Amino acid sequence: METIIKWSLGIDVGLKNIRCCLSSIDTTQLVKVKASRKFANTAGGLQELLVWIKKHYKDQQAPLSVTMEATGVYYERCALFLQQQPFRISVVLPTKAKRYLQSLGLKSKNDKIDAEGLAKMGAEQQLKEWSASSPQMYELRLLTRQHEDMQKSITSFGNQLHAITHRMYKFEDIENRYRETVSHLEELLKQVEAAITETIKADAKLKQKVDLLSSIKGIGELSAATIIAETNGFELFESQKQLESYAGYDVIENQSGNHVGKTKISKKGNSHIRRMLHMPALNMVTYKVKPFADLYERVFSRTGIKMKGYVAVQRKLLAILYTLYKKNQMFDDQYQLKTIGEKELEPSFGLASKKP
């Protein structure tokens, strides 16, 4: 009889339910499913899950690890609850879990299969341990996202107001309601900005990190706060490549034999990060901030497509922000950080490159 060396609980979390699979791996590296069950994603359901784990987790001399995906916000309550137990929690990026499941040759997909795949992944690999965001970091993410939503609403209502005022008939009461809405949203936006500033000041370490990222000309407090909040202080990332994938800047190539298709970024990632880096990238090119402006010029001169240059700047900017945060250093535009490569991203965005 082989000895169990590790227990692994894979959890596929949804809005209403969580599908769990408890597996074990023995000294022959054989992974066996021991139990599988679905629970409600509620406080009561999590208590039932804990009872179920204790029932089936018999050989407690072998450690138990829990693996789940970082999808949306639905996993957070479950992860925090289980972290308070004597279990090792790992939260993996969706792209990493997807590629692992694909490597198993699975052709079908459902919650049960996903839970089994995550359990097998946790059994076979030594995944990084997850830790919950601090209350300040969590609040900062909510505030920066609220700021983004309000900006979108102001733009939307502002466009509608512009259209209303240029129609062939004038309706003052309708126009006034639109103006009042825009004015109210602008006032709320100021309150959110003040709350973001206060949240940053309340945490000395967070304030220091925001100041580090803001040492790059074009990165303000809001931009730095958004990047830090959306990455949880880059907690889940061990390399720039992982970060690029999380933000949707990873490159997708389409080439086989003599066929050479378009190369582009996946955009399958955190859209809040890409949105926040858009304006800083434009400003850095406009005001010729090094090394970003030089990178833009090289890409644009070779491709003839401005958007490729701007996206290349965004990608490099994210890599530098990551390095500054990890190395705890200020930005120096006269010093090329050795940890940042010069590989330039050239996404096609459906446009043909300029022929030589």
What can you tell me about this protein's structure?
The chain is α/β, with parallel strands linked by helices and 356 residues long. It folds into three domains: 4-124, 2-Layer Sandwich (Nucleotidyltransferase, domain 5), CATH 3.30.420; 135-202; 214-356, no CATH class. 53% of the residues lie in helices and 14% in strands. The chain has helices spanning 43-56, 74-83, 94-103, 111-124, 135-165, 172-201, 204-213, 221-231, 240-247, 271-286, 292-303, 306-327; strands at 4-13, 17-26, 31-40, 64-69, 88-92, 251-252, 255-256, 259-260, 264-265. Helix 8 packs antiparallel against helix 10 (271-286). The longest helix has 31 residues, at 135-165. The radius of gyration is 24 Å and the shape is globular.
What is the helix/strand order? EEEHEHEHHHHHHHEEEEHHH
Average pLDDT reading: 87
Indicate the proportion of strand residues.
Answer: 5-15%
What is the domain total for the residues? 3
Main sheet, how many strands, which sense, barrel?
5 strands, mixed
List low-pLDDT spans: 337-356
What overall form do the CA principal axes indicate?
globular
- The SS-based structural class is alpha/beta
* Total strand segments: 9
- What's the end-to-end separation, in Å? 67 Å
Record the strand order, biggest sheet. Answer: 3-2-1-4-5
Number of helices: 12
Radius of gyration: 24 Å
The percent of residues in helical segments reads: 40-55%
What's the arrangement of secondary structure elements?
Elements: E1 4-13, E2 17-26, E3 31-40, H1 43-56, E4 64-69, H2 74-83, E5 88-92, H3 94-103, H4 111-124, H5 135-165, H6 172-201, H7 204-213, H8 221-231, H9 240-247, E6 251-252, E7 255-256, E8 259-260, E9 264-265, H10 271-286, H11 292-303, H12 306-327
Parallel strand pairs: 1-4, 4-5
Antiparallel strand pairs: 1-2, 2-3, 6-9, 7-8
Helix pairs in contact: 5-6, 5-8, 7-8, 8-10, 10-11, 10-12, 11-12
